[in-house]
Amino acid sequence: VFISDYFFKSNLAENFSSADLHVEVELAKSKLYDISSWYKSGGIADLLSSNVADIKYKSSSADTLVLEGKLDRPRLWSAEHPNLYTLVVILKDSLGHIVDCESCQVGIRQVSKAHKQLLVNGHPIVLRGVNRHEHHPRVGKTNIESCMIKDLVLMKQHNINAVRNSHYPQHPRWYELCDLFGMYMIDEANIETHGFYFLQDWKNPTLEPSWAAAMLDRVIGMVERDKNHASIISWSLGNESHYGPNHSASAGWVRERDSSRLLHYEGGGARTSSTDIVCPMYSHSMGNSNGNIDEYWEAIDTTFGLQGGFIWDWVDQGLLKEHPDGSRHWAYGGDFGDIPNDLNFCLNGLIWPDRTLHPAMHEVKYVYQPIKAALTREILKIRNTHFFESTEGLEFSWVVHGDGYSIGSGILSLPTIGPQGSYDIEWQKGPWYSVWASCSKAEIFLTVSAKLVDSTRWSEAGHVVSSTQAMKAEDATISSEVVGDILRVYQQSNWEIKFNIKNGTFESWEVKGVSVMDKGIFPCFWRAPTDNDKGGGATSYLSRWKAAHLDCLAVSTKSCSIHSSDKTLKIEAAYLVTPTVENSDVAFTCEVTYLVYGSGDVVVDYNVKPSSNLPPLPRVGVEFNLEKSLDRIQWYGRGPFECYPDRKAAAHVAVYEDNVGNMHVPYIVPGECSGRADVRWVTFRNKDGIGIYALVYGNSPPMQMNASYYSTAELDRATHHEELVKGNSIEVIILGS
Question: Per the database record, which ranges form the Beta galactosidase small chain/ domain (predicted)?
Fold first, then answer.
C-alpha cells in the first residue's frame, strides 16, 4: 500500500481568520513483477507481461481518505505575498511504522467569483499578465531552470503578476517557481483544433463524440498533475478549438473535481457555459507593436468588471542559427528549409529569444505599475492599487526638469499607504514647489518614482517599481533676424542654403562649411510595414495600402515661387504625389511654404490634401537625408527607448543623447522602427559639434521622429535583420503628432 495521490484544499473562514484544511489521500494497489524476464529481453522492462499479481489495500472504507485540520491566523498566498507552507503526508502501518511519505509546497488562498468579478482572498485582483510558450533560443522546447527563473525575474521586475500557460501544461518546475515567486496562473489543457477552421467540410473534433475521451484525458491529466499548486487560479480547456459538447463534458468534470478554482475558455465567443470568465483575444505583441496599450489599461482601471488580461505573448520563439562564416541570426519559419512553415508568426514576444527586452516592454511596465500618481496644479494623488501590499517597502522620490534638464530633486516623505489606499499632497506644499514656482523654463516636468527599499527574490534594492511624469507648459517666445533676398541664402560664413527652383526642394544645406543635408525636404507617406500591418489577408493594412499603390509614390513639382523681403525669404511650392503605376490618379497634393530667416532658421508649413479614396495612411510627414557623419543625436522628448504616439506612456519626457546607430531596433523581421514620440527638438551633430537642429514651431504639437542608417525601402526589402544594408546617409522622418 502506498500514497498514490493527494489533493490539498483549504476553506477560509468568512473573515479569513482561520482555514479549515482538507487533504484527500488516495491509496493505491501495488504490483508484483517477475523481473527475470527483463534480463532475457536485454534489460528492457515489459511491465504488462511481467505483472504476476496485484496487491490491493484492504479497508472497510474507500481507498480515498480525507484528513482534516485547522490553522488559525494563516498566512495567505497571493502574487503580492506568496506565502507557502510545506505539506507532508505520512502513511503508517498499524504498528506506527512509516510506510510512505509525500510532500509539496502549498498555499492557503481562496479563489471565488462575484458579480462580474474574479476574487482572490475576497479581493477583485487585477491580472497584469502575459501568455508564455516554453522556449529557449538554443534548445527550443527543452526546459532549463535558469531560463524559467530569468523569465520570472523579468516578469516581476516589469510588474507582470500573471501568466497563462499557452497552450499546454508546462514543465513541473515552472509551477513550483510560480508558487514561490508569486504569479497568478491559468493552466491550459493541451487542446487546439485551430487548423479545422480552414477545413469547412470536416467536423471539428470538439463536436465529435469519438474525440470526447481524448479531450477529457488531456483535461483530467492536467488537473490531476497540477492541482496542488497555489499559483493556479483558473483551469483552461484549451485554445482556439471552436466550441462543442466535448467542452461541456470537460467543464463538467473539472467543476465536479475542483470547485476551488475558476474555469476559462475563449472559444465560442468567450461567453459559453464552459467559462466563468469573459476572455476575448488578443493584445498582439508581434514585432514593433503594443500601440494603444495605455488606452486598454485606462479602460481596465476605470471600468467595473474589467480585471486585466494576458498579452500575446512573452518571448520571440526564434532559434539561433549559425552560418559557416561564424555569423549568427535569429531564425524563424522557413530558415531551416522547413515546409510547411508559418514564417515569422512565432515572433510575437515582448522580449527577444535571448530575453533582451523589446522597447514595448517599458510601456508594459508603465501601464502595469501598481503605484499610480495623478498630477495636477492643485493636488498630487498617489494611489496604491495593490490588494494586499502596503507601500512600507517603497521609497518615493521626485525630480523636476526644466526644458529637459534637472533643476531639483529629493526624497518624497509619505506615510505608509495601505492596499487600495491613496494619499493627497497639496501642490503648493510639495517639496518641489519652490523649484517649480521659480522656474522660468518653457516646459517643466515633475517625475515621481517609487523604488524598493530592500532586495527581493526578483530584484535588488533600488529597483524602480513605478514612475509617473506630469508637465507644466507655457508659450515660448520666437525671435528672428533680417537677411538678404537672394535665392542663395546665407549668413556670412555661418550657413548657406541652396534651393532648387525647378524642383522646389533643398539642393544643399551647409553650416560653417560642413554639408549637413544633401537631399530634401520631401513629403513622406510610406513606411516599412510592421508584422501586425500584414495580418488579416486581403483586409490587412498592408494589402489595402498596396492596393492603393501607396508603396510606389513619386513626387513632382507643380509650381514654385520665391518672395523676398528685408526680413525673410519665402518659398512657396506645390507638389503632386502620384503612384508610379500607369494611369494612376494623384494621391496627394502638397502645398508647402518655407520661411528662411537670417538666423538660419527655416520654418516649414505643409498643407496636405489626400484624395478621397485612400485607406488609412501609413504615415504623413516629411523626409530628408543628412550626412552620415552627423551621427550624434540629442532630442528633447520621450525616450530613451523606441516609442510611438500609441505606445509612449512609459517613455518619460527629458533630454536624451545617443548614436544614430543605437536608435535602430533589431526586430528579427525588419520593419518600421526607431521612432521617438513627442519630440520638441532634435539635433544631429558630427564629432566637432556641427550639425542641424529641428524643433516644433509656435503652437504646433510635438513631433514623431525617426532616424536611421537604413532607408525605408531597405527596411521594407529585408526579411531578416542581418540582410539589412546601411545607406550612405542618415534618413530622417518627421511626422506631426
Answer: 488-737
Phi-psi region at 536: left, alpha or beta (left = phi > 0; alpha = psi -120 to 50): left
Pairing of strands 588-597, 505-511: unpaired
The x, y and z cell numbers of residue 288, run together, are 514593433
Task: Round to whole Å and give the CA distance between 494 and 687.
Answer: 18
Q: Which residues of 689-706 are buried (b: 16+ CB within 10 A; e: fewer)?
A: ebbbebbbeeeeebbbbb
Quick check: 43 and 68 in contact, CB under 8 A? no
* Nearest to 132, CA basis, from 165, 86, 95: 165
Amino acid at residue number 12: L
Mean pLDDT, the chain, rounded, equals 89
Check whether 598 has a pLDDT greater than 80. no
Q: Beta-strand (E) ranges in 443-567?
A: 443-452, 464-473, 489-491, 495-500, 505-511, 514-524, 553-564
Q: Please report, for the domain that includes residue 588, its CATH number.
A: 2.70.98.10
Q: What are phi and psi of 641, to 5 degrees?
A: -90, 170
Q: Are 704 and 679 in contact (CB under 8 A)?
A: yes
- Give the domain-ending residue among 68, 84, 109: 109
184 and 333 both lie in a single domain? yes
- pLDDT-derived band at 315, boundaries 50, 70, 90: very high
**Spatial CA neighbour of 373 closest among 493, 271, 465:** 465
d(CA 356, CA 284): 18
In the DSSP assignment, the letter for residue 121 is: T
- Could you report the per-residue pLDDT of 328-387, keeping only the tens digit for each? 999 999 999 999 999 999 999 999 999 999 999 999 999 999 999 987 768 899 999 999
One domain, residues 622 and 647: no
Residue 401: give the domain boundaries.
370-473
Percent of residues in the chain assigned helix, strand, coil, to nearest 5: 15, 40, 45
Residue 117, in any domain of the structure = no
Q: How far apart are CA 182 and CA 201, in angstroms?
A: 46
Euclidean distance between CA atoms 395 and 398, whole angstroms: 10
Residue 443, sorted as left (phi over 0), alpha (psi -120 to 50) or beta, turns out to be beta
Tell me, yes or no, whether 119 lies in a domain: no
- Which letter does DSSP use for residue 366 in this model? H
CA distance 29 to 424: 65
CA-CA distance, 730 to 626, in Å (whole number)? 5
- Of all residues in the chain, the percent with pLDDT exceeding 90 is 70
The count of structural domains within the chain is 5
Show the CA angle centred on residue 634, arms to residues 710 and 349, nearest 5°. Answer: 55
Question: What pTM was estimated for this model as a whole?
Answer: 0.83
Q: Which residues of 123-150 are buried (b: 16+ CB within 10 A; e: fewer)?
A: bbbbbbbbbbbbbbbeeeeeeeeebbbe
What's the CA gap between 208 and 205, in Å, rounded?
5
Residue 31 C-alpha from the chain's centroid:
52
Q: Categorise residue 242: left if φ over 0, alpha if ψ from -120 to 50, beta otherwise.
A: left
C-alpha cell belonging to residue 628: 552620415
Residues whose CB is less than 8 angstroms from the CB of residue 589 and which lie 6 or more positions away in sequence, other chains included = 558, 574, 575, 576, 577, 608, 609
In degrees and rounded to multiples of 5, residue 294 shows phi and psi of -65, -30
How far, in Å, CA of 76 to CA of 107, rounded?
7
> What is the per-residue pLDDT across 10-46, written as a single tens digit (0 to 9) for each?
999 999 999 999 889 988 655 544 555 554 555 566 6
Buried b (16+ CB within 10 A) or exposed e, 203-240: ebbbbeeebbeebbebbeebbeebbbbbbbbbbbbbbe
Q: What is the 3-state secondary structure (H, E, C) of 258-283?
A: CCCCEEECCCCCCCCCCCCCCCCCCC
What are the angstrom distances between the C-alpha of 231 and each of 185, 276, 723? 5, 18, 43
Which pLDDT belongs to residue 685?
Answer: 94
Domain stop point among 592, 610, 626: 626
- The answer to whether residue 481 scores a pLDDT higher than 50 is no
